[in-house]
Amino acid sequence: MTALYIILAAIVLFLAVILIRTLMFTPKTQPAVNDEKIDFDKQKTINALQSLIKCKTVSYYDSSLEDDNEFKKLIDMLPTLCPAVFKNCEFMQLPDRALLFKWKGKNDGDPAVLMAHYDVVPVDEQYWDKPPFEGIIEDGVLWGRGSLDTKVTFNGVLSAAEHLIEKGFTPEQDIYFAFSGGEEINGQGAVNIVDYFEQNNITPALVVDEGGAVVENVFPGVKQPCGLIGIAEKGMMNLEFSVLSSGGHASAPAPHTPIGILSSACCKVENNPFKMHVTAPAAKMFDTLGRHSNLLYRMIFANMWLFKGVLNMICKKSGGEINALLRTTVAFTQCEGSTAPNVIPPKAKMTANLRLNPKDRVETAVEYIKKVINDDSITLTVGSNMQPSRISQTDCAAWDKVASAVASTWQGCLVSPYLMVQCSDSRHWGRISDKVYRFSAMDLTSEERKTIHGHNERIRLDCAARAVEFYIRLIKSC
Fold this sequence. Notes:
Helices cover about 40% and strands about 20% of the residues.
């Protein structure tokens, strides 16, 4: 009987610990909010964005498909769109369509760098409801490729600077505007800008590029809008799986054909996901947003020592954004076999796109895939790839400036670090800075986010104007 009482007491104590930790898992103090009213010429900024969208700055991996005149057209119109910027800032053009502005500050401290890219992905115009390069405005919405990704932030940076210069403002430290014309094809423009900084011994105080946004319904149990600032981004790798055979007529196949072998490998990989790793970006997001979640999820995030396996199981089964934060993901995207339906292919191949968790590397990911498929007849070939980025700090003045600008511009949102699952030019800055932040200055619905790289990309006019407000606030703090 004594032993039973001891067991019951232990169970009660165990449950009490879980409950107490859950009840103590309360919201942390959010970033400081500046209530200063920001007034600027919103129509002027919308007109500028409309003009930028009309430039067909489409980048292709096959450069022969690009129209250099459209890129030149955009660059040539900038002095007209923002004359005060060109009058007060040093302007440099670096190789591979890289544009760099230097706005001289009052002091010689480390500068801020505000980034964007002005190239866009191709379009299939037949699926668009409005022409993608005419800058049509209807019902408070501006349609066009690049309106979200990322001519809105390109315009936001320059419009904010134009407004502040016209008002006689001078930043405390130098501010650089760094723009790439080849981000969508992993071009060298951003690399050349970072090289310039490195060669001139310039260390940024902070770097801000595209990334998260103010979004809703992206974290379990949280109803408030969330302003997500990426402090790192996953790596990327394209991995080809190929099988050779002697071919032959489909009427007399071997027990396992090349496509059958690849199909088996595909299933093995999908049924054996990479190990979950709660790295710093995800841990900080859970510790921030988890405190605002409902009771069930607060219990999980407050007691990860106990419920980590439960979270892992939920993510494995559901997939989606939270799962992508926690592990390297594998998406099979291409498959190729015979050129005829009655011929066994002499070679079959499929390609997987992997997004690498910060704990994984290209090399370790390949080793894991080899172990899972366990088939020497399959050759693995690594294609284009990039390692996960450096993780940036959050306990520093640089983070506070960006977080405060988000909280002040979208008052009421919950500002949180997160891990960006896409890739951007900002990863190149990791070699000279651990204060690189990824935030696209917009509040976007789920439907709007789906138009990025998709059909009918468009932006609400108030959203485009809010981007300028964000940069005005950020610049004034630098």
